[in-house]
Every structure is written in C-alpha cells, then in structure tokens.
Amino acid sequence: MLITSISDSGGTVLNIGLMSGVQMNRAQIHQQHPNIRVKPFWLKRWVEDISNTQWHKTFGIVFELVKSGKLTIQAPRTRFSLREYEKAINEAQQSGHIGKVIFEPFLLR
Fold this sequence. Notes:
With about 110 residues, the chain is an alpha/beta fold. The chain has helices at about 1-5, 25-30, 45-50, 50-65, 85-90, and strands at about 10-15, 35-40, 80, 100-105. Strands 1-2 form a two-stranded parallel sheet. Strands 3-4 form a two-stranded parallel ribbon. The mean pLDDT is about 80.
C-alpha cells in the first residue's frame, strides 16, 4: 500500500468507496503503520440500508442546503496522476495551501 508508506506520521488516508472491488485490510495497515489512520467512507452501504423515502428526504435537505449556499464543497486545488505522487505530496505539504490535492487514477501525464 504505497500511499500509507509515504504518508506522514499521524496522517490520515481516506478510503472512499470500494471502486477497485478490493477491500483495504485496515488491520494490516495499522500493524505496519500504527501512526497512520485509515478512515473508510462507503455511501453505498448507507444507501442500501435506508428506505427510498428516507433517501429522498435526506438528499432533498442536502440539495436545499447546496441551492441556498449553506453547504459548499471546496474545489480541489490540484490534481495529479498516481505516477506524480511525489509532486502531489510536495504540493500537499506546502504551508497555507487551500484546497485538496487529488489523485486521479485515470489521469495520464
């Protein structure tokens, strides 16, 4: 797991979804890198466990918050291919940066 090998001690790796179809072994990552937190987020699991009515109610609230400007999402500052991981890490470590540094697995450079 390359990203955990190069993360700073005390850093967090956010595992979004299960796009690859391969589950991350968080116990193994913690054993090898005890100072790195891996936090999972699976919207799909939440969606599978709620009723259609609750889904519509929840997203109706979210959409209204977005439309009213009360909920915003910070745009990514920069995007890098996975091959550019060193550049991405350097960019993320710059003090005072605003915006996320995003890896795009299908971005070719």
